[in-house]
Hints:
The structure holds two protein chains of two kinds.
Chain A (H helix, E strand, L loop, with lengths): L1 H16 L4 H28 L3 E3 L4 E3 L1 H27 L5 H16 L4 H19 L5 H36 L8 H7 L5 H19 L7 H8 L2 H30 L1 H25 L3 H22 L1 H33 L10 H4 L1 H14 L6 H15 L3 H27 L17 H14 L6 H12 L2
Antiparallel strand pairs in A: 1-2
Helix pairs in contact in A: 1-2, 1-4, 2-3, 3-4, 3-10, 3-13, 4-5, 4-10, 5-6, 5-10, 6-8, 6-9, 7-10, 8-10, 8-11, 9-10, 9-12, 10-11, 10-12, 10-13, 11-12, 11-17, 12-13, 12-16, 12-17, 13-15, 13-16, 13-18, 13-19, 15-17, 15-18, 16-17, 16-18
Chain B lengths: L1 H20 L3 H25 L3 H26 L14 H17 L1 H5 L9 H17 L3 H23 L4 H29 L13
Helix pairs in contact in B: 1-2, 1-6, 2-3, 2-7, 3-8, 4-6, 6-7, 7-8
Amino acid sequence: MMLGVLLAVPLIGAVLLWRAAGRVATALHTLTAGFTLAAALAVGVRVNQGPPLVALDGFLRADALSGWMIALIGIVAALAASEAPRYLAQTPGGRFYPLFHLFVFTMLTAVSTDDVGLMWVAVEGTTLASVFLVNFERTRASLEASYKYLLLCSIGIAIAFLGTVLVYFAGIQQFGDEAHALRWTTLQRLAPGLAPRVMELAFVFLVVGYGTKAGLAPMHTWLPDAHSEAPAPVSALMSGVLLSVGVYAILRFKPAVDVAAGPRFAQNILLALGLLSIAVAAAFLWISANYKRMLAYSSVEHIGLVCLGLGVGGVLGTAGALLHIANHALAKSLAFLVSGRIRAAYGSTEIAAVGGLMRSQPRSGALFLAAILALVGLPPFGLFVSEVMILAACFSQGFPLVAGAALVLLVIAFAGLLRSGHAILYGTPPREPAMETHGWRSALPGAAALLLLLLTGLVWPPGLGDALNRIVAIVAP
Amino acid sequence: MTNAANLLAFLGLVVTLLIVWRQSWPARLRLFVAQSLLLAALASTIGVLAQRRGLLLVAAVVVVVKGWVIPRVLARIGAGAPVRPVAPGRSSGLALLGAGALVVAAYVIMLPVTAATELPTERAIPLTFAMALIGLLLCVTGRDALGHILGFLVFENGIFGLAILATYGLPGIVEAGVFLDVLVIVLIMEAVVVQVRREHDSIDVDHLRELRG
């Protein structure tokens, strides 16, 4: 019932918004986002404290891991939704609101089902719902970005389908016509008897396929284009949670592969792709001349870190990765939302065209500064804590070389991001921008995200540790 | 019946190689239709063989969606495009050689799968996987939007064939999702291509190279 409500809210909102216009649309949009947030938080807390929620004969199912993602999607969607009216005031256009909520709906569906087949359909749905949002401004650049996005992610998701088929094949080969052989719970139960070589092959396809959606190098090439050309609220959603939905899909298959084929196989793949992603991002953080692309490459870096954490595994690594997903979602969506305001003020997304943000836009500047400091992994923000957890897990699980390489690459990325951030905040702009017009209220959602980041960085709210432990028990038993 | 299934999969691969070989767009489109119809025949053969009624329905949907609706959309997208996008003098020999290598690779990659099963259809599994790989090759070497879409569709056909041969049909919701997905992708592609043509006066996606770094 609760799950049904959670999925129905954004879907009904999207349907109603299809015909709505003007102030009705804005009000309806705010209502939908608010209710989605409330339902997501309610489900998130409920499944973490109690048993999994099940609906439609187990078709929909949310355990603690789903709950973590659901709450995260709700929060980031609310954050992005709060910025959407300001964006649309500058760039009016067609069906932004309905597609926005449809996008949220597909992501929520992907993480609240027990059926890996339906999960696949929903992840594919995220691409289809967001491709028109990427091309919302219908410029040449956004057209190119959406074309690449659609083509590469469709190929990726088809490869993930192949992986899903092989997992199903392994299930029915070993156990005959097992009912619900595509259910995640069934897969967990059957895992010890699944053909190991087939599961390995399937996992390769799943990592390549869902890894394309997650933005793991070398499948990340669509990401900087799509994230930089999409409207700021959409970039926030894509970078904040869509990438993590891809990681979540890989994470769902990992326990079964670990049991069937031994833990080394998935571990090696995830560590290699994680390190490669951080390396690619570190290089491109130095050379990207566009601040939205810079933020996109920073996402590749952080998803790489998450992959490292999941790869080394253990309680510390997995918990660190999960926490990092949340921290990154908050910090990156905030950074992308502010990037939308910077673009509105300066009329450009080139770093060279922007400067002195702190002087001309003190409120946006302060938010951007905090987001950049959080993203480079400085205390007191949460990303510092989760990065330390992941690196400590690398050391304690016997991967000192991986940890060392990751540290060096992180320092390179740190310097690159900070250099560009400094130019944006304190540099001299080629021409003076308009002064900031929005009041302190516009900074409230961003401040709330920062507050959450401070909480995960300084004092863990009571229950956060237990919540993480419960999720780790699901994915790394 | 098993031989029939294997023969159909083999014919599917032959048609895929013909798509690589032919350069003219209308011929490739006809070959794609032929490939889709072969897959529909494959699905109904296995449906009879394994007594799965659902597969007959799947076969009917394949005929309608991939044999009729999608080719119509593709024809609409291609209307007005030059029949041969490739410059004259460029032979398809190299591409065919690559496709041949992919067939070998498909057999090697699918070894764990064929080793794990006693299915009568196991010998056809690498053939469909080779179709998928060649589709991927077509997609990445495609020089315009049509080439990309066609490559993607061949790729998808290959995976679909593999799914039928290896599992005798997936749960209904997944099958439905796959069809809807392919259809929507092609329709969105059409919308995108229409805009590309308006912006650049051609569907050559070589124009799309502004985003760098």
